[in-house]
Specification:
Elements lengths: L2 H9 L5 H11 L6 H10 L2 H16 L2 E4 L2 E4 L29 H10 L7 E4 L9 H14 L4 E4 L2 H10 L4 H11 L3 E2 L9 H7 L6 H13 L3 E8 L5 H18 L2 E8 L15 H14 L5 E2 L3 H4 L1 H7 L32 H10 L3 E5 L5 E4 L5 H6 L2
Bound molecules: ligand V47 and iron/sulfur cluster.
């Protein structure tokens, strides 16, 4: 949609003077402040916020919608921490439901993908008291020795903070050690909500917001990229979401190391926050749209379909989202255990491509750093059917 068309929609909407001025400001590409983000959350009609977010998305990326071909390794679900929203972790002494993979078992998993056109492995799990930095450095070295071009995106800042402290290494030293062993980039997990008054209620015992940011800054200082998440739709208020995005945007101004912002919808199945209702689809779409408008220095906005569901993820593509992740593996348990409809979150490339095309977008396979691997917009049904 071009600027003129969006301007016509704004002028034709019955808006307060403040909201009208804000829409025009957004349209002209100016950065919005925290009060203005609040105005969008509280007062703007969803269709209008969505139109503005979509305008920005199309200005940055046109119809290009990215996905990647990756697989996950979840080394363990044993965790020393006790986040109240987590349906996934188990205590160390829970022999029935806790799993811990040896380096050999994880390498078997890597070998399962030999010869398959995968560009990334995403390693993420609980925080196991006995899996230390040297254990994981050994794993990274073995993966790189086996498949040097496989990009390793691994370990949340929560896992890293624990590993570094246990090994008595500074964050800079620990990051360097893992980078040299083969770690290429960091996923965005563990950020939750930075505001201490919320963090203390939902995940009091793990690294705080300042520590999370500091660990990502250390990665960026080494030239590594990373993602950033935000867990929304639970007990936080709009002000906490804005504060969270504010801290990320400020750091991105300095380091430019973040690739993607990923708002994660809180799911309430089988955890200590099951009494907290989940957000509506309307609230989800609003979250993505405001994020696209506010996070002006983040190149990409990702909807993680295993947690949102395929159809809602498809809808977000009209509300600012330009990336739909893309795991094609069926062992990602973190969301299926939290109540996602996606009990078995695997989607073939053909299904992903179809999902993106149905939304009127252009499917582009990317690598972790958003280099184009393949444009699937013109592909015959026969070739599509052959893709796995
Ligand atoms: O930090 C845990 C979240 C995150 C629940 O960087 C929950 O590309 C909702 O960060 N409801 C880990 N969310 C996963 C993650 C991630 C996923 C995909 C891609 C990337 C990336 C990162 O999962 C945790 C936490 O915020 N989480 N429990 C729950 N009940
Ligand atoms: Fe552990 Fe992560 Fe679950 Fe928190 S969210 S309990 S750090 S696995």
């Amino acid at each position: 949609m071009n600027r003129q068309a969006v301007e016509t929609i704004i002028n034709g909407s019955a808006l307060s003077a403040d909201l009208h001025n804000l829409c025009m400001k957004i349209l002209s590409g100016e950065r919005i402040n925290n009060g203005e983000a609040m105005l969008l959350f509280e007062e703007a009609p969803l269709a209008l916020t969505g139109t503005l977010a979509n305008f920005i998305r199309e200005k940055k990326h046109g119809h290009r919608t990215y996905f990647n071909r990756n697989f996950h390794i979840e080394p363990t679900n044993v965790c020393v921490f006790s986040c109240k929203f987590c349906s996934y972790s188990r205590l160390y002494n829970n022999r029935e439901e806790g799993w811990e993979l040896s380096v050999d078992q994880m390498m078997d998993k890597v070998r399962e993908y030999d010869g398959k056109p995968i560009t990334e492995v995403h390693i993420v799990g609980g925080v196991h008291p006995k899996m230390d930095i040297h254990y994981f450095a050994g794993l990274l070295q073995k993966i790189k020795a086996h498949r040097p071009n496989l990009h390793i995106k691994g370990f949340t800042a929560v896992e890293l903070d624990y590993m570094f402290r246990k090994a008595k290494l500074s964050r800079a030293e620990g990051m360097k050690l893992l980078n040299v062993a083969g770690l290429d980039s960091l996923p965005g997990g563990g950020a939750e909500i930075f505001a201490p008054e919320i963090r203390e209620l939902i995940c009091a015992d793990k690294v705080d917001g300042a520590g999370w940011l500091d660990i990502h800054a250390e990665a960026h200082a080494l030239g590594m990229h990373s993602n950033a998440t935000m867990l929304y739709g639970h007990i936080e208020k709009y002000q906490h979401r804005i504060d969270h995005m504010d801290q990320l945007r400020a750091m991105q101004d300095k380091t430019k190391g973040f690739n993607t912002f990923i708002p994660l919808k809180f799911r309430n199945f089988d955890n200590e926050m099951s009494h907290v209702p989940e957000s509506s689809v309307i609230e989800d779409l609003k979250m993505y749209a405001v994020a696209r408008i506010y996070m002006d220095n983040f190149p990409h906005l990702k909807a993680y379909w295993p947690m949102l569901g395929r159809q809602n993820a498809q809808l977000t593509l009209s509300f600012g989202v330009n990336d739909i992740d893309g795991t094609i593996d069926d062992s990602t348990k973190i969301y299926s255990m939290a109540g996602s409809e996606e009990q078995n979150p695997s989607m073939s490339t053909a299904q992903l491509v179809t999902l993106i095309k149905q939304a009127g977008r252009q499917p582009i396979e990317r690598d972790t750093l958003y280099n184009e691997v393949r444009d699937y917009s013109i592909i015959s049904p026969e070739t599509l059917a052959e893709l796995n």
